[in-house]
Amino acid sequence: MPTSKNAPHSAAPTRRRLPLLYFLFLVSVLGVWFYYVSSLPNVAFLRQRWAAMLTMLFGSFIAGASPEGSAAIAYPVFTLLLEIPPAVARNFAFAIQSIGMTSASLLILGLRVKVEWRYILFVTIGGVFGLIFGTYYVVPFISPVLAKLFFVSLWLSFGIALWRENRRPQREVFESIQNFGQNDRVWLIAFGLVGGVISSIFGTGINIFTFCLMTIYYRVSEKVATPSSVIIMTIETILGFFLHVQVLQDFSQESFQLWLACIPVVVFFAPLGAFVITKLPRQGIAKILYAILVVQFVGAMFVIKPTLTQTLLCAATLAVGLGLFMYLGKLKRDV
């Protein structure tokens, strides 16, 4: 069922149930964390990581409440303000999201929040291959500063395009992909592939990149696309965590200490964000996303202080991104 811009969300009211899987996960994680930390001879590093914990308080809430993973907040703060090496920040992002995003996803499933499962399935298929390919063949050749500027510029262009779409008074949105066909499988897998490569660099990205396709091209409501993107990032981040710990074995002691310090924060605040979005109207979610994207871009400009060449890269990325997303918005789909 389509809904107009001003219409209330048209999903039939569903009976809520107690999210038992989330509570079991919460108790298990905190129990294991407390047992392990209490066995350590020295836990002074926990107090020393207060800045990371504060960052993740906001980052994990945003991860649960929007299509942005917590790494979208943690990566620039860690690498630019806290001067943590990019590889450490990326591996930490995979590790901490394996806790925060999993807890948020379990709450989403436990509360029976509406998601688009075909979106989740086919994006994940492409994302698995994109993450593996990017880890081995893209990450070694990427400049962290240029990559971050590209990252924030591309997402800002999406935010502008979505804002333009939502200004249309008669814009219709849907609760699922309409008239799903073979071409849609190809679109979703392709966007998942590119999103997986982006995630291999930053520890996040597949969620927001494919969210662009869902909201602009398929016109799926932000209220459905957001929790769906959280589940996608959960699957991607668990794979990334496994890849760096068990396969590449480049998960450093610094990443591990950051992870231990932030686990008690994200296990509460990521699902809190996921719960908050169930209470917000579609336009409210969109406005939160606009604010995040603008703050993310302005913050990166302030901290990085790009050179003329880097500024031109940002401008070019904004222009190309706007062209891409506005083109997707103008494409006509049979609905």
Structure, described:
The protein is mainly α and 335 residues long. It is 75% helix and 0% strand. The chain contains 13 helices and no strands. It has helices at 20-38, 44-48, 50-65, 71-81, 86-110, 117-137, 144-167, 182-202, 206-217, 222-247, 253-277, 282-304, 308-330. α4 (71-81) runs antiparallel to α5 (86-110), α4 (71-81) runs parallel beside α12 (282-304) and α7 runs parallel beside α13 (308-330).
Which SSEs are present, and which pair or pack?
Elements: H1 20-38, H2 44-48, H3 50-65, H4 71-81, H5 86-110, H6 117-137, H7 144-167, H8 182-202, H9 206-217, H10 222-247, H11 253-277, H12 282-304, H13 308-330
Helix pairs in contact: 1-5, 1-11, 3-4, 3-11, 4-5, 4-12, 5-10, 5-11, 6-8, 6-10, 7-9, 7-12, 7-13, 8-9, 9-10, 9-13
Q: How would you concisely characterize the structure shown here?
A:
The chain has helices at residues 20-38, 44-48, 50-65, 71-81, 86-110, 117-137, 144-167, 182-202, 206-217, 222-247, 253-277, 282-304, 308-330. By secondary structure, it is mostly helical.
Run of helices and strands: HHHHHHHHHHHHH
Q: Can you count the helices?
A: 13
- Total number of distinct structural domains: 1
The residue-averaged pLDDT reads 85
Number of strands: 0
Query: Terminal Cα separation, in Å?
Result: 10 Å
Question: Can you tell me the overall shape?
Answer: globular
The low-confidence runs, each spanning 5 or more residues with pLDDT under 50, are 1-14
Report the sheet with the most strands, covering strand number, pairing sense and barrel closure: none
Estimated structural class: mainly alpha
